């Protein structure tokens, strides 16, 4: 008699849909698995460049992102994240097409940040490119009417050259100083800012710098995905 075949289900993991980039992924960045205390798997959307998503907001990318999400689900992903906060623009398409929870953008946490605002405060946002973060992005996740002050990294040298232009080396100390300067400028221009949300998924390595400079609570993609994972599985797994 033939023994029954034993099928071992893959361990659950968080799937992360990645842009097609070549810059370094240090610990803290969404693209480094050591950033997380839970299993993650990555899949790149070929030809999904920063230029196409952030600068051009190319809607032709929607289907490739959906296809990549489905491939990750097929191999065991129980939830999905993405490697760019600008995917907020496609949030509705992603959640409708994919059969697991999709955490498309760190900006989803603006809803949470709003709940801890004092009446005179605004949510602060630090984004990779202020000029590219439009009302369409905000409306796609329902945050367009929340009081916000937005600070971009548009004029920085290192951050721009690496994460927008695709330089393959990273001066971490310079990038940290640039992030601190941006946070300081945000607070100087808008002292009414309360909690801060970091849009870009490459910013979490510098979140502590932002906290130290501003004295504010700071949310980023790692706080989003950590919370998401905790909500999905029993804590003893």
Task: Give structural attributes.
single chain, 237 residues, alpha/beta, four-stranded parallel β-sheet, 16% strand, globular, disordered N terminus
Whole-angstrom Rg: 18 Å
Task: List the secondary-structure elements in sequence, H or E.
Answer: EEHHEHEHEHEHHEHEH
- Overall residue-averaged pLDDT value: 94
Q: Quote the beta fraction.
A: 15-25%
Q: How much helical structure, as a percent, in the residues?
A: 25-40%
Strand order of the largest sheet: 2-1-3-4
Terminal CA distance reads 36 Å
Tell me what you see in this structure.
By secondary structure, the chain is of the alpha/beta class. It is built from 9 helices and 8 strands. The strands form 2 sheets. It has a 4-stranded parallel β-sheet, sandwiched between helices. The protein has a 4-stranded parallel β-sheet with strand order 6-5-7-8. Strand 7 (193-198), helix 8 (207-214) and strand 8 (218-219) form a beta-alpha-beta unit. The longest helix is centred in the C-terminal third of the chain and has 18 residues, at 172-189. The chain is globular.
What can be said about this structure in brief?
The protein is an alpha/beta fold and 237 residues long. It has helices at residues 50-55, 62-74, 91-97, 110-114, 135-140, 158-164, 172-189, 207-214, 221-232, and strands at 13-18, 40-44, 77-82, 102-103, 122-127, 148-152, 193-198, 218-219.
SSE inventory with pairings:
Blueprint: E1 13-18, E2 40-44, H1 50-55, H2 62-74, E3 77-82, H3 91-97, E4 102-103, H4 110-114, E5 122-127, H5 135-140, E6 148-152, H6 158-164, H7 172-189, E7 193-198, H8 207-214, E8 218-219, H9 221-232
Parallel strand pairs: 1-2, 1-3, 3-4, 5-6, 5-7, 7-8
């Amino acid at each position: 008699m033939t023994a029954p075949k034993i099928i071992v289900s893959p361990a659950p993991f968080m799937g992360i849909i990645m842009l097609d980039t070549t810059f370094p992924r240090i610990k803290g960045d969404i693209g480094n698995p050591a950033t997380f205390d839970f299993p993650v798997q990555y899949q790149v959307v070929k030809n999904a460049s920063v230029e196409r998503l952030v600068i051009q907001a190319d809607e032709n990318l929607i289907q490739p992102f959906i296809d990549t999400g489905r491939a990750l689900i097929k191999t065991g992903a129980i939830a999905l994240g993405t490697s760019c906060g600008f995917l907020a623009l496609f949030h509705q398409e992603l959640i409708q097409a994919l059969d697991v929870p999709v955490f498309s953008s760190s900006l989803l946490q603006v809803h949470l940040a709003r709940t801890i605002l004092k009446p005179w405060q605004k949510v602060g946002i630090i984004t990779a490119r202020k000029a590219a973060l439009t009302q369409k992005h905000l409306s796609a996740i329902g945050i367009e009417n929340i009081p916000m002050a937005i600070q971009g990294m548009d004029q920085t040298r290192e951050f721009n050259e690496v994460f927008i232009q695709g330089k393959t080396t990273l001066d971490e100390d310079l990038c940290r100083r640039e992030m601190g300067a941006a946070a300081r400028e945000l607070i100087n221009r808008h002292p009414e800012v309360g909690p801060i949300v970091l849009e870009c998924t490459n910013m979490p390595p510098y979140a502590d710098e932002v906290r130290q400079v501003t004295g504010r609570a700071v949310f980023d993609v790692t706080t989003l995905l950590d919370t998401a994972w905790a909500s999905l599985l029993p804590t003893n797994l």
